[in-house]
Specification:
- By secondary structure, the protein is of the alpha+beta class.
- Helix content is 32%, strand content 15%.
- A five-stranded mixed β-sheet has the order 2-1-5-3-4, covered by helices on one side.
- α2 crosses α5.
- The C terminus is likely disordered.
- It binds FE2/S2 (inorganic) cluster (2 copies).
- One FE2/S2 (inorganic) cluster binds next to loops.
């Protein structure tokens, strides 16, 4: 099938197999390898992207289901190559990552969360993070990063 998707503001038209996962489409067809793949069955959250502004697990979506829709991946967050998005800057500042494998998924899950909850409480932050797995940080640095982003520059995409 031929699909047309807009990814990080750029329109792409591609012929794809109907069974192709959106995560594989982004990584292999478009070369956007910032979207990571951990479990490939909806558990770890590493593959989270924005589909029409909402966080979804791209390993649970077929590429053909994204036809006609807008996608944002982690590559689309920073406003320029030498400027981090405020949420990325907060992760760096608060040590919200170690190996970084999970980070893109956390960032993409948190963008709509902070849009909808600009001043979240710590329980709300922890609830929001509960769908993403991190094997390194113990989560405390990530929680601090979200507080920093919410309290400082905000985190609108
Ligand atoms: S790779 Fe998609 S949720 Fe783990
Ligand atoms: S920083 Fe390594 S898995 Fe989260």
């Amino acid at each position: 099938m031929t699909i047309s998707v807009t990814v990080n503001g750029v329109r792409h038209e591609r012929a794809v197999e109907p069974r192709l996962l959106l995560s594989d489409f982004l990584r292999h067809d478009l070369g956007l390898t910032g979207t990571h793949v951990g479990c490939e069955h909806g558990v770890c959250g590493a593959c989270t992207i924005l589909l029409d502004g909402e966080a979804v697990r791209s390993c649970l979506v077929l590429a053909v289901q994204a036809d006609g829709h807008e996608i944002t991946t982690v590559e689309g967050l920073a406003p320029s190559p030498d400027t981090l998005h405020p949420l990325q800057a907060a992760f760096r500042e608060a040590h919200g990552l170690q190996c970084g494998f999970c980070t893109a998924g956390f960032l993409m899950s948190l963008i709509p969360f902070l849009r909808d909850h600009p001043h979240p409480s710590e329980p709300e932050i922890r609830e929001a993070l509960s769908g993403n797995l991190c094997r390194c940080t113990g989560y405390q640095g990530i929680v601090e990063a979200v507080k920093l982003a919410a309290g400082a520059a905000g985190a609108a995409p």
